[in-house]
Structure formats: C-alpha cells, structure tokens
C-alpha cells in the first residue's frame, strides 16, 4: 500500500467487506486473501473487521484462525475482551451450523 488516503476509511472498509463475503460464497481461499489484505489496510482500525474475519474463519471450520483474529483485534485495541468473547460465541455457533450442514448427505 501507499499509506495514503486518511479519512473515509469506513465506506471503503464496507465495500471490501462486502467483496470478501461475496468471494466467500465461491472460494474460501479468495475470501481469505482479501481479509488478509484488509488487515494491513482498510480493516486494521475497524472492530468489525476482526469480528467478520472470525465469523468467516469459523464458518469455514478454522476455529483457531477465528480465535486468533479476535485476539489480534483485542491486541490492536479495537475490541474489548467482552466484545471478543461475544464474537467468539457467535463464531462457535456458526462453526456448529457449518459442521451440521456438511454432515447432511
């Protein structure tokens, strides 16, 4: 990144998030690449980035990655521990739904 472009990150972030979620419908790998890119750019300062990333990882069976994303959010000062715990519970529910869906023949 060029590091430029201060303000207006919020709208830009929402566009990227929508893009990642659309990609996730067809390719988890492509979506993950977008999330990784967001973390070093538009997503870094957004609490919603970390919760969305955790949910995405959980939905794709990567619970450790989900927890790690929330931990980074707390360490970055974007999530308080209570918010991270709440997001983790949501992620665990998403992972359970995902596992149940895959178990259906």
Write up this protein:
With 105 residues, the chain is mainly α. Helices cover 75% and strands 0% of the residues. The protein contains five helices and no strands. The protein starts with 8 loop residues before the first helix and ends with a helix. Mean pLDDT is 88; it is low at 1-7.
Keyphrases for this structure?
mainly alpha; globular
Short note summarizing the structure:
The protein has 105 residues and is mainly α.
Order of helices and strands: HHHHH
**Form type:** globular
Helix content percent band: over 70%
Mean pLDDT over the residues: 88
Spatial separation of the terminal alpha carbons: 45 Å
What is the topological layout?
Layout: H1 9-26, H2 28-39, H3 47-59, H4 63-75, H5 81-103
Helix pairs in contact: 1-2, 2-3, 3-4, 3-5, 4-5
């Amino acid at each position: 990144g060029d590091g430029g472009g201060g303000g207006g990150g919020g709208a830009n972030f929402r566009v990227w998030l929508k893009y990642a979620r659309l990609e996730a419908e067809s390719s988890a790998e492509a979506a993950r690449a977008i999330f990784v890119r967001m973390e070093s750019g538009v997503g870094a300062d957004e609490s919603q980035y970390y919760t969305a990333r955790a949910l995405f990882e959980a939905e794709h069976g990567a619970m450790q990655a989900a927890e790690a994303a929330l931990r980074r959010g707390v360490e970055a000062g974007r999530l308080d521990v209570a918010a991270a715990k709440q997001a983790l519970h949501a992620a665990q529910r998403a992972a359970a739904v995902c596992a149940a869906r895959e178990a259906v023949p």
